[in-house]
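User: quick one, fold this
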Amino acid sequence: MLTSIEGTYRSGQIVLKEPPTQVRDETPVIVTFIDSSEIDLRAQGINGAQAAELRSSLAPFEDWDEPEMDVYDDYDSAKARL
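Assistant:
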């Protein structure tokens, strides 16, 4: 069973937003720290102009999460049925 609960790291402890339900004491856990800061482009070797160019070149792909794009999820199988 996997259970996910949002929390915050504070003073060496994990403070959970809500108590877990149906989880026994001493249950092993894995904690993944999520970096909430923005990406430092300079640290990645990208300046503002390069970032703008990259953003522009990737703009056509922003609609991949739209429902009408689901047809491409299994493109090879759909093509084979033609």
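User: anything notable?
Assistant: The mean pLDDT is 85.
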